[in-house]
Amino acid sequence: MAQASTQIEARRKIPRQPECNVGSAGHVDHGKTSMIQMITGVWASAHSEELKRGITIKVGYADAAFYKCHNTAPPASYSTLPVCPVCGRETELLRCVSFVDCPGHESLMTNMLAGAALMDGSLLVIAANEPVPRPQTREHLQALQMLGMKKIVVVQNKIDLIDDEAAKKSHDAIKNFISNTVAADAPIIPISAQHNINGDALIEAIEQTIPTPKRDPAANALMHVLRSFDVNKPGIDISSMVGGVLGGSLVRGRLHFGDEIEILPGLPEEKGGKFSAVTTKVESLGTGAGMAQEVGPGGLVAVGTQLDPSVVKADLMVGSLLGKPGTLPPIWSHVKLDLQLFESAVGSTELVKVEKVRREEVLRLNVGTASVLATVTAARESTAELELRKPVAAEANSRAAVSRRIAERWRLIGSGVIE
Ligand code: GDP
Ligand code: MG
Question: Which residues of the chain register pLDDT less than 50?
Answer without folding.
Answer: 1-11
